[in-house]
Amino acid sequence: MSVLQIERLTFTFPAHWQASKFDDWGFYRNHFVRQRNDIQAVDILALSPDQIAFFIEVKDYRHPQALKPSALPEAIANKVFCTLAALLPARLNGNTLEHERALSQAVLNCHRLHVVVHIEQPAAHQPKVELADIKHKLKQLLRAIDAHPKIVSMKRPQAMAWLVTAR
Q: Do 60 and 66 form a contact (C-beta atoms < 8 A)?
């Protein structure tokens, strides 16, 4: 079982899943991100036992200082594109053979790829972020990668295999 902390959320993945905080990888932080400006990555790479890869981006708007980005779908799409671009060189040059290279290879060999955006919003003043608009724009921006991206939250997990709890 993999347990990952992202912002103020805990992601618990089932046994036999592989999951990692991609933007914490040594290869990404120390090499890939230095290639050019505006390189970003999704928060989590996860791989199910049946070889389905999940790119998971996490946004937690529950704390008062959270700033709503004006171009959230474009920012998420950029993270997906940059993560895809990083996977092949991470497989070839990753810093940790048993982790970064192996998970990169597994994701590159996957049968399907899903983009999942986990968004938590404050109870008051909903909706802070228009989820339907984000999903519609993501479908347009990512149609060649995942024509059906998912927008999920703790209250609306949409049958994702992992569990998310607040810290």
A: yes
Q: Is the pTM of this model over 0.90?
A: yes
Looking at residues 63-79, what average pLDDT do you find? 81
d(CA 137, CA 73): 6
Cβ neighbour number for residue 86 with a 10 Å cutoff: 24
Q: In what order do the strands lie in the sheet with 9-13?
A: 2-6, 9-13, 163-166
Q: Are 17 and 56 in contact (CB under 8 A)?
A: no
Which pair of tokens denotes residue 21?
Answer: 């905080």
Q: Strand 112-120 vs strand 150-152: parallel, antiparallel, or unpaired?
A: parallel
What whole-number distance in Å separates Cα of residue 100 and Cα of residue 59? 24
d(CA 78, CA 84): 10
Q: Are the C-beta atoms of residues 8 and 60 closer than 8 Å to each other?
A: yes
